[in-house]
Amino acid sequence: MNMIEVCCALIFHAGQLLAVQNESGKDHPFQWEFPGGKVEPEEDFQACIIREIKEELLLEIIPIRQLKSVIHQYPNKLIRLIPWIIEVKNSSIHLTEHAQSKWLKEYELDFQNWQDADRELIELNKVEILSYFRKNYENN
């Protein structure tokens, strides 16, 4: 089975982190994830996350830092989830591929119905994610 590389965005704004929920007809219906998508052939990870967030949220972003990746085996696919800490140029989000979005406070991070790979990503990068919650909150 070939591994699918997927970039995702950890978008912080005013001390909160953006999560998006899958629609009913998608893989992992009604579960929450970080927005993003598959890396195209010949595309680097930074270009991928910029393109995907523009497509999914109609949002201009600046990738700040890549965090540790997670490799996860779902029943029908193997993915490498590549997270990016993101700075937004504007905070006006327009969903094009998800049922809903939610800005999470730090204490809500563990209480969402996350997709398995996203939950693993949170656990692996928890120290960095929590530090960005605090840093972003202090800067707003």
Structure notes:
- 25% of the residues lie in helices and 36% in strands.
- It contains three helices and eight strands; from the N terminus they run ββββαββββαα.
- Strands 1, 2, 3, 4, 5, 6, 7 and 8 form an eight-stranded mixed β-sheet that branches.
- A hairpin with a 2-residue loop joins β6 (70-74) and β7 (77-88).
- The termini are far apart.
Please report the total strand number as a whole number.
Answer: 8
In the predicted model, the low-confidence regions spanning at least 5 consecutive residues are none
- The arrangement of helices and strands along the chain is EEEEHEEEEHH
What's the number of helices?
A: 3
The major sheet is characterized as:
8 strands, mixed
Describe this protein with a few key phrases.
single chain; 140 residues; eight-stranded mixed beta sheet; alpha+beta; 25% helix; 8 strands; 3 helices
What's the short story on this structure?
With 140 residues, this protein is of the alpha+beta class.
Write the layout of secondary structure elements.
Elements: E1 3-13, E2 16-21, E3 32-33, E4 36-38, H1 45-57, E5 61-66, E6 70-74, E7 77-88, E8 100-104, H2 116-124, H3 126-138
Parallel strand pairs: 1-7
Antiparallel strand pairs: 1-2, 1-4, 2-3, 2-8, 5-7, 6-7
